[in-house]
Design brief:
Elements (H helix, E strand, L loop, with lengths): L1 E3 L2 H5 L6 E5 L6 H17 L3 E7 L2 H6 L12 H10 L4 E6 L5
Parallel strand pairs: 1-4, 2-3, 3-4
Enzyme class: transferase
Protein name: FAD synthase
Organism: Ditylum brightwellii
């Protein structure tokens, strides 16, 4: 699995892919269904699969200094390990900040 965190480097990826976007915290059964469908569609089309992760969680960003947001179920590294176990080809870490 290849991980991108630089938008310019990610933009240089000149190939089609099947993508989904989200937080994927905990990678629960609903997430697993999405990832299975993503992987299956990518295999059918013979193109890579891509998960775009929002980091930090939007709730964390908007909570600011108050810290008044739900606790994470998985830390970022665990999330990447779970996505890799699903056979995801690419992950793009999209920085959720004021410029987004």
């Amino acid at each position: 699995m290849i991980i991108f965190d630089d938008p310019e480097r990610f933009a240089q990826l000149e190939q089609n892919c099947v993508a989904t976007i989200g937080k994927f915290d905990g990678v629960h059964l609903g997430h697993q269904l999405i990832l299975d469908q993503l992987k299956r569609k990518a295999e059918d089309l013979e193109i890579p699969s891509l998960v775009i992760l929002l980091e930090p969680h939007p709730e964390e960003f908007f909570a600011g200094e108050s810290g008044n947001c739900p606790a994470r179920l998985t830390v970022f590294r665990e999330k990447l390990e779970l996505l890799e176990s699903f056979g995801i080809d690419y992950v793009f870490e999209l920085k959720f900040d004021e410029t987004l």
